[in-house]
């Protein structure tokens, strides 16, 4: 089977050295390990600022970069294996061990341990932090700043309700390739909701068709339950109950709640019927 270029750090002229013997390339290198030190780093299709955004890397995520061109690095995220071009200015080295994750939908990183100090940037749910100090109710994260402790959690302190996590994004703008609280796409919403619950989840909607176990797709759409993942060609959403679908979508241009029957009636003529229903 051909390797998926979205999650394989390979081109005919350059590849990661761990792929030696698996792919044909003129050059194999180990690359350089970086870590996202900005609030978020776009992952682009090509090395320029106007290029299509494929995904995003959140603060604290690590990236292996094989090549740098005009301020961009071609590489791969460790978390979900996604490959693309990263803004080098948003990355730092060496990588630091993370100790906490952001458990709030979003929060400010402050310049001082005070809510009156200047905010440096925002971080979103599932961003990770290398916490190095505490002062009062604030934690200081390396390469970031001060964050209110109630918006942070231990790395293994996961939620238990993916649909409840997804509801926090209600009204967030639809943003192609996004997975932060200020804007995200359909598969980004599903991925972030599951990751917050400690469930590994691939990035794109077609990849998410293999999540968990399959649920029978009935003609009357019965038998569904909260947290079921509904998958169409090119689209995905999560059930709030047996009838209501929550999804980030380009029709509403936001994360919205919609009766599944209405969504099916609108989406089917455009993208075809439901392909699979997954229960994570």
Structural notes for this entry:
The protein is mainly beta and 280 residues long. It is built from three helices and 26 strands. The chain has helices spanning 162-168, 186-195, 260-271, and strands spanning 10-11, 14-16, 28-29, 32-36, 40-44, 53-58, 62-69, 72-77, 83-87, 91-92, 100-102, 106-110, 119-124, 128-129, 131-135, 138-141, 146-148, 152-154, 179-180, 183-184, 213-215, 229-232, 235-239, 244-249, 254-259, 276-279. It has a seven-stranded antiparallel beta sheet with strand order 6-5-9-8-7-4-10, with no helix packed on it. The protein has a six-stranded antiparallel beta sheet with strand order 21-26-22-23-24-25, with helices on both faces. A three-stranded mixed beta sheet has the order 1-2-3, with no helix packed on it. Strand 5 and strand 6 form a beta hairpin. The longest helix is centred in the last third of the chain and has 12 residues, at 260-271. The radius of gyration is 20 Å and the shape is globular. The protein starts with 9 loop residues before the first strand and ends with a strand. The relative contact order is 0.11.
Features:
mainly beta; 3 helices
Helix and strand topology:
Layout lengths: L9 E2 L2 E3 L11 E2 L2 E5 L3 E5 L8 E6 L3 E8 L2 E6 L5 E5 L3 E2 L7 E3 L3 E5 L8 E6 L3 E2 L1 E5 L2 E4 L4 E3 L3 E3 L7 H7 L10 E2 L2 E2 L1 H10 L17 E3 L13 E4 L2 E5 L4 E6 L4 E6 H12 L4 E4 L1
Parallel strand pairs: 2-3
Antiparallel strand pairs: 1-2, 4-7, 4-10, 5-6, 5-9, 7-8, 8-9, 11-14, 11-18, 12-13, 15-16, 16-17, 19-20, 21-26, 22-23, 22-26, 23-24, 24-25
Helix pairs in contact: 1-2
